[in-house]
Amino acid sequence: MGRLSRRAFAMAALTTLGTAGDVTAAPRGGPAAPPGRRRAAGELRGMWLATVANRDWPSRAGLTPAEQRAELLAHLDTAVRRRLNAVFFQVRPTADALWPSPYEPWSQYLTGTQGKDPGWDPLGTAVVEAHARGLELHAWFNPYRIANHTDPTRLVASHPARLHPDWAVPYGGKLYYNPGLPEVRAFVQDAMLDAVRRYRVDGVHFDDYFYPYPVAGQTFDDDAAYAAHGADFPDRASWRRHNIDRLVRETVARVRKVRPAARFGISPFGVWRNAATDPLGSDTRAGVQTYDDLYADTRTWVRERWIDYICPQVYWNIGFAAADYAKLVPWWAAVAKGTGVRLYVGEALYKAGDPAQPAAWQDPVELSRHLTLAKQYPQVRGHVFFSAKEAAADRIGALARVVADHYQQPAKPPR
Fold first, then answer.
1. pTM for this prediction
2. Could you read off the pLDDT of 78-129 as tens digits, one per residue?
3. How distant, in Å, are the alpha carbons of 123, 154, 161 from that of 115?
4. CA-CA-CA-CA torsion for 195, 384, 70, 199, nearest 10 degrees?
C-alpha cells in the first residue's frame, strides 16, 4: 500500500460522491495553566497518529528504538504545541500489535519484519509520555484488517490468520478477518482488550473499517459463514449489520468491565445514509453509505447509546455539493441530541493545501470556518484532525489559524 493512510481505502468512496498490569502513568490532567491564564471549557481537541504503512509514525520501518521513541515524543510535543489535548494512537493497524501482545505479532511497521521485537514498548511509552504532557491517549484499533495484500504466506508463521486460514477473506487486494464468524469476533476482542488491560488508556477507538469498502466487480466471500449463522435474518445485509452491532456492543461491555474510566468511540465514514435512500438520512449524495455498504449502523449506535462518543469523518468543505460540511454537522448533532453520546467531528487537515483538492482547501481559513459553524451546535464537543504528520507540517497554516481563532487557551478534554 506504500505510504498511504487508512483513508486511502476510503478515497475510492470519496471519489464516488455525487455518483450513485498497568503501566504507571503521570497524574491525569497535566500541568496547571500558567498564572493569569484561564483554561477553556472542556472540549476534545485531538489528532490521529497513524502507523499503518508508516503513514505518520515511525517515519520508516527499521529505525532504532531511540529514533522511534524520539519521533513519537515529537508528535506528542506537536499536539501540545497546537494546544490539542488528545492523541488517537493506532496500535493495531493490521492484525498486529504495537505492544508485547500474546495474541498477535509485533507490527512490521516498527522493524520491517512482522513479529520481530522492536526492543521497546511503543504503546506503554505513549501512555506514560502523553499523560506526562497533559494529553489523553486513546488506543486506536482496526478490528478486521489483516494485511494490505492477499498472500497469507507473507504473514509470520505464528499469525492467527495462518493458524486459522478459514478466518480470512481476500477482497480488493487486501486480507480481512471474516466478521461473520463468532470465533473471529471473540478473538479480535481478546486481542484488543489485552492492551486495554495492560495500559491506562483514556479511550478505545475504532476507525471506519468494518466490512470493507466496496470494490467494483468483487464479492466478499462469506457464503459459508452466512449459511452457518445467517438463518435467522431476512437477508445477508441484515445479518452483516448484526455481526457489526454485536462487535460494538460486546466490545463496549468488555471495555467498561476491564477499564471503566476509558471511553469507547468510533470514527465512521461521515454519511450514514443519504436522504434519497432513507428519510432519516442526511441531505447528501454520497456514493458510499455506511449502513448499506460497510454494514455499520452508526446512527443506531448513537441513538441507542451503545457508545460513549461518535467522531464522524466529515472530510468535505463547506458548500461541497455532494456532502456539505454545513449539512452533515447539523445532521449528526440532531442524531446525538438527547442521547448523552459525545459528538466530535473528524476534520480533514490532510486536505488543507493539497493541490489535488478543490479550491476551498487552498484557503487556510476553511478549517477555522468549520469550527465556527460547529459551535452553533451544543452537541459538538470537539474536533479531531487527520493527522499527526499534517499537524506538524501544517502546509498552509490551516491548523495554526484554528489555534489562533479557537484554541487560544488550553482546554481539558470533556469527561
1. 0.91
2. 999 999 999 999 999 999 999 999 999 999 999 999 999 999 999 999 999 9
3. 16, 12, 14
4. -20
